[in-house]
């Protein structure tokens, strides 16, 4: 005779599994400009964070009043302005910023006039086509260096020259790292020696002890193809080894590459995060839900290559991906067709704009400039 024994017959209480909590966001459209980059810093030293994007800066705390910066060349659908990296370049106490362009093929810094007048453009170097630019402390001195991604050109970083008090002098020193690199760039300590290495599309450049003049050795342990900027270097699974997080900027795919080490040899195993959306060009790693753990924040770029990339006409989206111990869980910040969903540009910023204790997201693109206010749980 067959009998059915269920937990409640035995008085066993089966605990309910609490639904996963996720933070919510409220979108505010700031402008319908089509710049690809947005940064956040206090432009006028009034104690409020401002938004800088394209030809304008938007005054905090409500970002309703905009001020002119400069005219950037427009080529087709693009404004030739592909990063917004805050840095007081000339040491005058007002924050300037670094940008560069694909079509102008030049790295520049924009001088904050300290008033509402136009900003002056200063050339740093004729680098060749600038896909976008990032800032990392390459030489470990506590200051950020500027690193443009210039496909098919030499990889170099640009170090701000400072005076004896540590203030910027308005000039940069160029240090070349490799004779050529491709689409995709990251920075972080791959081998655990305490020095940051460069991630290229075809491998990683191992940092020498002398990062100004020593040779950077290419370790061809992977091939990422055309890769995001940045490629994130983070210990995803908590095993003590730094892994890679890579978006496909002009195709479908978002993956992480698990680092494994055996007998002193480093290898990487590819794991999918999201194969269903395309044009993951810019990635950020931040504690977006205030749980003490970092999350991946990214989104689909709108009309990269003027809509001719795979998935170019798919719905737009911004997401954060949370590591659950085995894989990444996708959380939607925004999703939908043009005008409803919001995509990521080529460079976006994350900051607590309203002192709520939660990090907000400022994102530009050909679909406009928006703030996603993080409203917590």
TrEMBL record:
<dbReference type="InterPro" id="IPR028994">
    <property type="entry name" value="Integrin_alpha_N"/>
</dbReference>
<keyword id="KW-0732">Signal</keyword>
<dbReference type="Pfam" id="PF13517">
    <property type="entry name" value="FG-GAP_3"/>
</dbReference>
<protein>
    <recommendedName>
        <fullName>VCBS repeat-containing protein</fullName>
    </recommendedName>
</protein>
<dbReference type="InterPro" id="IPR013517">
    <property type="entry name" value="FG-GAP"/>
</dbReference>
């Amino acid at each position: 005779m067959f009998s059915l024994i269920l937990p409640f017959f035995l008085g066993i209480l089966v605990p309910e599994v609490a639904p996963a909590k996720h933070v919510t966001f409220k979108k505010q459209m700031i402008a319908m400009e089509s710049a690809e980059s947005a940064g956040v810093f206090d432009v006028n030293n009034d104690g409020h964070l401002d938004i800088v994007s394209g030809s304008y800066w938007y005054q905090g705390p409500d970002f309703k009043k905009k001020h002119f910066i400069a005219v950037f060349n427009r080529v087709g659908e693009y404004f030739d302005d592909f990063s917004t990296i805050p840095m007081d370049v000339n040491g005058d106490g007002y924050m300037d910023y670094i940008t560069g362009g694909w079509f102008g093929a030049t790295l520049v810094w924009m001088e904050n006039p300290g008033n509402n007048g136009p900003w002056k453009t200063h050339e740093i170097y004729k680098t060749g086509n600038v896909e976008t630019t990032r800032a990392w402390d390459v030489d470990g001195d506590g200051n950020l260096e500027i690193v443009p991604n210039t496909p098919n050109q030499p990889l170099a970083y640009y170090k701000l020259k400072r005076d004896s008090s540590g203030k910027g002098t308005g000039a940069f020193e160029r240090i070349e790292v490799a004779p050529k690199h491709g689409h995709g760039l990251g920075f972080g300590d791959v081998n655990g020696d305490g020095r940051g290495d460069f991630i290229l599309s075809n491998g990683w450049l191992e940092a020498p002890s002398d990062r100004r003049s020593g040779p950077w050795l290419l370790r061809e342990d992977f091939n990422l193809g055309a890769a995001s900027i940045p490629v994130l270097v983070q210990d995803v699974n908590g095993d003590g080894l730094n892994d890679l997080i890579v978006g496909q900027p002009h195709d479908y795919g978002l993956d992480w590459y698990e680092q494994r080490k055996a007998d002193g040899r480093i290898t990487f195993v590819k794991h999918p995060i999201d194969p269903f959306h395309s044009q993951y060009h810019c990635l950020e790693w931040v504690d977006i839900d205030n749980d003490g753990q970092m999350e991946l924040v990214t989104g689909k770029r709108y009309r990269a290559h003027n809509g001719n990339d795979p998935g170019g006409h798919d719905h737009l989206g911004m997401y954060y991906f949370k590591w659950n111990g085995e894989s990444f869980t996708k959380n939607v910040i925004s999703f939908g067709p043009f005008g409803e969903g919001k995509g990521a540009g080529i460079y976006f910023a994350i900051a607590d704009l309203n002192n709520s204790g939660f990090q907000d997201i400022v994102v530009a693109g050909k679909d406009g400039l928006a703030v996603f206010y993080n409203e917590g749980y």
